[in-house]
Every structure is written in C-alpha cells, then in structure tokens.
Amino acid sequence: MESAAVSRFGLAGILLLLPLCSFARDITDSIGEQVRINDQPQRVVALIPSLAELTADLLDHSLEKIVGVSEFSDYPPALKKFASVGPYNRVSIEKIVSLRPDLVLASFNGNAKEQVAHLRELKIPVVVVKTDTFDEVEESMRLIGAALGRKEQGAAMAQAFRTGISKIKARGKTRTSVPKVMLQVGDSPLVVAGGENILNECLGAVGAENIYSDSRLSYPRPSVEDVLHRRPDAILVLQLSDSASSRASAARWDEFKKIPAVANSKVAIIADQGLLRPTLRMIEGLLLLEKRIWGEQ
Amino acid sequence: MNARLWRLYFLGLCTWIIAFVFALNFGIPADSPRDLISQLRFPRALLASAVGIGLSVAGAVLQALFSNPLCEPYTLGISSGAALGAVLAAALGINFIFFGITGSAFVGALLFGVILYFISRHRDTNNLGLLMAGVMLGFLGSSLVALWMALADPNGIQSALFWLLGDLSRARPRGAFFSLFAVLSLTLAAWGSWRKLDGLLMGEQDALTLGIPVPRVRTKMLILVSLLIAVCVSAAGMIGFIGLVIPHFARRAVGSLHQKLIPLCAIWGAAFLTFSDALSRSLFRPYELPVGVLTALLGAPLFLLVMFKRQGVK
User: Fold this and answer.
1) Is residue B17 part of a domain?
2) The domain containing residue B246 runs over which residues?
3) Would residue A3 count as lying in a domain?
4) CATH number of the domain where residue A264 is located
5) Which of A157, A241, B134, B177 holds its CA 20 to 30 A away from the CA of A222?
6) Cβ of B44 under 8 Å from any chain A Cβ?
7) Omega of the bond prior to A179 within 30 degrees of 0, cis?
8) A192 and A273 part of one domain
9) A50 and A85 part of one domain
10) Contact B178, B53 (CB under 8 A)
11) Does some domain include residue A127?
C-alpha cells in the first residue's frame, strides 16, 4: 500500500518534471564548449550588435524572444527599443542576470572573455560564436539557428550566404588586374583593415588586394608615411559613425597626390556597414565594395 | 580623547554598514532579485571593503615609512608590475593560476615587489633610495604597458584597459572572502608594528637613535605592503585616490599615532570604497563608471574643502 502510494507520487512527480527537462539539449559552440540550452529558448540576450542582427533575422517575426541587446544594436531598427545590457566590450553582468535569459549569444573576439566566463559560472547558457572568416560566418548562422531552435532557417541562411559568396568570388577571379586597396576604418590615429580580419577576405573575394594583408593584427595603425610608401590604387573609408566625419577622413588624403588612389580620384566612402555584419547583409556589403572598386557595370 | 576615538570608530563602522546595505540594494537593474544580490553584489561589496581597507592601510604605512605625505600605494611601482602582468596576460591569452588577469597581475606585482626587496636589502639603500627605486620601477612598468598597447591589437587588451581604470566587477564569492581575509591578516600584521611606524615618523636618523632597526623594519614593511598592494590591485585594478587621501583624513581626526590611525584608515577606507562602488554602478545604468573616477570625483573636492576649512579656522 505504502509503496504503491510512493510509486504513484513518484510517477506524478516524474510526469510533472518531464516538460521541464525533456526540452533541454546540448550544443557545441564555436570554441568547443558544450552548452545546455532549452529546445526553444524564450529569453535571448545578444551581447554584440551584429549577433543581435543575426538573431533578429533568424527569429523572423518573433522578436519578442529577444529580451536584451547590447548598446548600439540598431539594425533592424526595432532592436533599438530593447533593454540594453551596456556596451559590448563591457556588458553589465548584473543587467544580464536580472533579465533571466535562457540563451546568451556572445562573440569570441568582440566580448570580453572573462565576462563570458563569469556568465557561465553563474550557470547562464552562453553560446560563443566566431565570425572572423566567411566559413566562420556560415558556421555561425547554422550554430545560432540551431541554438534558437530554428535549425532549418539557419541552414537555409548559411546556404544562401555560401551561394552569394561563391558568385562574388567567381566574378572576382575573372578580373584581369588586381588593384591594391586600403580599407580605412578610422583616422587620428589611422586605423585600417589588417590581415587577420574578415575585411581582408572581403577584399580578396572581389578580386582586390589589401595593402595591409601582411599585418598579423586585425586592425593595425600604420603611419601616413607607410601608406604613401605602399601606394594604394584605391582608398575606401568605411563609415562607422556620421557621414560628415567620413567625408573629412576621405578629404584628408587630398594633399597626397602621389598616391595613385588620390591622383585617380579613387578615394571613396562605404556608408553601408554590411561588410561588418555576419548576416546576409554582408553579401550586399560585398556588392557595394565591388561597385566602389570596379565602378558600375 | 578615548571616547572621541571610539565615537570615530563607531561612526565609521555605521557608515560602512550603511554603504554595504546600499551596495546590496542598488545596481544596474532597478529590481533586485535575490540571486543577483548573493552572486554579484555581495561579493562585490565585500571585495570593495577589502580593497578599501588594503589601499588605505598600505598608504598609511608607506607615508610613515618614507615620512612623505605624498606616498600612496601606487608610488612604489608595485601596481605598475601588476598592470604589466595584466596587459601581457590579456594580450597573450595566458591563464595563470586563477582567473586570467587577476592571477597574472598578482604575479607581476610580486615580481616588482621582489626586485624592490633586493634593492632594500642592499646595504647602501636608505629610505629615499628605496623610494626613488620604486618610482623608477613604476615608470619602467607603465612605459612597458604603453609600449605593448602601441604595438598590440586593441581587441585583445581591451579588458586589461578597463582593469587599469579600476574594476570591481571581477568579484567572485570565494575570491572576495579570500581577499578580505588576506587584507585583514596583513593589516593586523602592520598594526602590530605601530610603535616602529611611529618611530619612523621622526625620520630615518632619529628613528635609528631611538633604537629602531630601520633597515629591518623597512624590509618587513615592504613585504607587507607589497603583498597588500598585490592582493588589492590584482583583484580590483588601479583604484586611485583612496590610499593617498583616507590616511590624511584619518590623521586629521586622530593624529599620527599608528595604533589609532591604522584601524581608522581600515574602517574609513572600506566605507568609502563600498559607497563609491555602489554609486558607480547605479548612477548611469546600464553603464558602469570606472570606480577610480568616482573615488577621485567624490574625494578630491571633499579633501580640498576640509583642508581650506581647517586653514580658515587657524
């Protein structure tokens, strides 16, 4: 009698707990970490604007599953209204904990590693993603799709990305000349895209050569003298803030007529941030980059 | 006098407790779930107290050791060693014994401390010589940090940069208890030598005439202070101002005798840093201000006010 009661309650207990545990699953993130997350995460926090964008794209219309984003998450514009967890390079752990997320998405190079470690110590599931090469971007689409419980959407997006990239690469291979390009991301101090950077791969894909591809840094800070020495055929200023400051950065090269880029009026501004977004917007960014280097076709 | 002293201790303790309660209840999100308090705010307030105690006491001891009121925990360059360790670790991705930056900062601080120890053991070294050597080591360390920053990828060292400005957000429950325990033991050890510290106030020569073994005291204090600074700086980065000014306030209140001074420094330091950190977290949500900025912003005007008020009375 007693054992029957126990087993009945035991069974009831198991049945009650079943919905709680059956939906958890393990996922391996970009740095090889095993993360246990809900089958359909309902409270997602993205720690860097580009991942917020990727998440929004993959969730399609169910943005209500996002409960927090980092500062300056502005694309899609609807994200501006979401709770902020602070700037990506130093998020507020307190704020994240208070949002009670069941999935946190972090960037390997963007977010501080010890903050990610801290979140994991607090038993918050964090999926870390690398997006520094085309392959990694493709992989991150699959990974985040799987993490969000949208495996098919993730795979479809990755496939679209791969197709788009290979089309651009194919066009890049048909070019007869290889222009030397400098991709500027900031001035005073001058900051450019180096070799360890997805922008380097972008330039290669469209059939151009990054003049700082030999740098082992992702964002080296060369001197103007060195730029004069390397004689770029084109200088492209990536607009990260307002257009006035980008125009000023571009105009600063005017006095150096010895640079082929300046002599041939090949100093241009890229106002679109697609190149830095690990989403399908990167394809659009690449098309724009192509246009800036090779002109309309 | 005695009643006044107890009153000051009591007041300081009350302020600290109020600051602690404030720190537990305010932070970045407006509401305060319980696990947030126990996992994040409590260790953080505990660490702030420990570091406040450590830096103030280290400042007081160094000011006595060199009979120089401008000495502070960062004057001796030990903190630059910590900074160097932190930046190197962040840039190279090295993980020492405990949490990356904390562990390597501790190792860096100890390394510079050991160099200073050998300098202080040298028979030609007097107090001034040790002070100069410390200042030079500090310059060496900070220029190496600057060199690294000029050459390295900004991506990698960003977290070290935040750490340099003072950062209590690394607090962990066990680590905070350990820091508090270490700081309290070292503070007690320094307090035990209050007579010798009093003697040193008269200057090196007079202290020798009084029968105080100056070189030995110097070495002992150097070891104590190095450890104190290493514990504080590696756990919380470079939080300026406290080590310089809390001892001055305390000295104005109870005089220069270390038996009374050191406990008061400890209590006020803990209260001041706990309060400043709570403010730094709650003023501009969700941004966190570097706590070192806030301690100076709060403390410098306060200090000037007290100084001029006192001169006016004269």
Assistant:
1) no
2) 40-313
3) no
4) 3.40.50.1980
5) A241
6) no
7) no
8) yes
9) yes
10) no
11) yes
First to last CA, chain B: 21
Asked if residue B216 is part of any domain, the answer here is: yes
Total of domains in chain B: 1
* A186 and A280 together in one domain: yes
Residue B285: closest CA among chain A residues belongs to which residue?
A: A86
Q: Using the beta-carbon criterion (under 8 Å), do B286 and A86 form an inter-chain contact?
A: yes
Annotate chain B with DSSP letters as a single string: -HHHHHHHHHHHHHHHHHHHHHHHH-SSSSS--HHHIIIIIHHHHHHHHHHHHHHHHHHHHHHHHTT-TT--TTTTSHHHHHHHHHHHHHHHT---SSSHHHHHHHHHHHHHHHHHHHHHHSTT--HHHHHHHHHHHHHHHHHHHHHHHHHS-HHHHHHHHHHHT---TT--HHHHHHHHHHHHHHHHHHHHTHHHHHHHTT-HHHHHHTT--HHHHHHHHHHHHHHHHHHHHHHH----SHHHHHHHHHHHHH-S-HHHHHHHHHHHHHHHHHHHHHHHHHTTTT----HHHHHHHHHHHHHHHHHHHHHHH-
Residue B36, chain A, CB below 8 Å: the answer is yes
Would an 8 Å CB–CB cutoff place A122 in contact with chain B? yes
To which residue do tokens 């399908």 refer? Answer: A280
Specify whether A260 is located in the same domain as A203: yes
Supply the ipTM of this predicted assembly.
0.75
Residue B285 contacts A where some CB pair is shorter than 8 Å: yes
Whether residue A152 is found in the same domain as residue A198: no
Q: Which of A110, A142, A165 is the last residue of a domain?
A: A165
Q: pLDDT tens per residue, chain A (297 residues)? A: 445 554 555 555 554 454 444 478 888 888 888 889 888 899 999 999 999 999 999 998 788 899 999 988 888 888 888 888 988 888 888 889 889 999 999 998 888 888 898 899 888 999 999 998 999 999 999 999 999 999 999 999 999 999 999 999 999 999 888 999 999 988 778 899 998 889 999 999 999 999 999 988 888 888 888 999 999 999 999 988 778 888 888 888 998 988 999 998 889 999 888 888 889 999 999 999 999 888 865
Q: Is B223 exposed, middle or buried (0-12, 13-18, 19+ CB in 10 A)?
A: middle
The Cβ-side half-sphere exposure at B171, using a 13 Å CA radius, reads 29
User: pTM of the prediction?
Assistant: 0.81
The boundaries of the domain holding residue A272 are 176-294
